[in-house]
Design goal:
about 220 residues; four-stranded antiparallel β-sheet; globular; about 40% strand
Length: about 220
């Protein structure tokens, strides 16, 4: 009787071990299937991302167009119905990349040679729109649209507002210049790979910061009350 009881005990122990082994094998199989599913989904997601990156209908512009506002976050305020502060100014421009080129300097080896007109960007002419009268360097600038370009020098930029719109900035009619002013050149480090324009807050108005490569300038703009 003792022998039978011992045999039954051994059989029970062996059955428990086999059950544990089966449970382990089922769990291992489930993990493997889940891993394969994740791998497949990951591959599909990667394909989806690749399809987004390679748009079959158009290529990415090498000098993408950008639009800046003052107040800087005006679009978000407008969409959230929080635009209690009026829109003062807006700039539309294209942003060229440095791509290893020499940007500012003396002579034709530079992309923007000293003393020659530059359209402050690429593609179409840069446009600035004032939605209310402002003052720049003591001159009243009426609300309206202007083409904006500059003449870079080593120590200063001559910034110009021109009334000859839709010219692409390639052939500037200087007889249509409305306003000119000089602003000092400042150095910056590290250099900016992309030409960038932003509005910054300033006492009584704003500053229009323009930066590329190792230089930047700021055009002070006062708001007329």
């Amino acid at each position: 009787m003792g022998i039978c009881k011992s045999s039954f005990t051994n059989i029970f122990v062996i059955m428990k071990i086999k059950i544990h082994i089966l449970v382990f094998l089922f769990a291992l199989a489930a993990i493997s299937c889940h891993s394969k599913t994740e791998t497949k989904e990951g591959a599909e997601n990667a394909e989806d991302l690749q399809s987004v990156k390679t748009n079959p209908y158009t290529r990415l512009d090498q000098s993408p167009m950008d639009m800046i506002y003052y107040p800087e976050n005006y679009p978000i305020l407008r969409m959230n119905h929080g635009d209690t502060v009026p829109l003062i100014a807006r700039v539309i421009y294209s942003r060229p990349h440095k791509k290893g080129r020499k940007i500012f300097g003396e002579g034709d080896a530079y992309l923007c040679p000293y003393g020659k007109i530059w359209r402050l960007g690429a593609n179409e002419a840069t446009e600035i729109q004032f939605f209310k009268n402002v003052s720049i360097a003591g001159t009243n600038i009426p609300a309206g649209d202007y083409v904006m370009y500059c003449i870079p020098h080593a120590d200063r930029w001559t910034l110009v507002l021109n009334k000859n719109l839709y010219t692409w900035g390639l052939h500037v009619d200087e007889s249509k210049d409305f306003f000119r002013t000089d602003v000092p050149v400042m150095t910056q480090s590290p250099p900016a790979e992309d030409f960038t324009m932003i509005f910054t807050d300033a006492s009584g108005g704003a500053g229009l910061l323009m930066a590329w490569d190792q230089v930047k300038v700021i055009l002070p703009i006062l708001f007329v009350k």
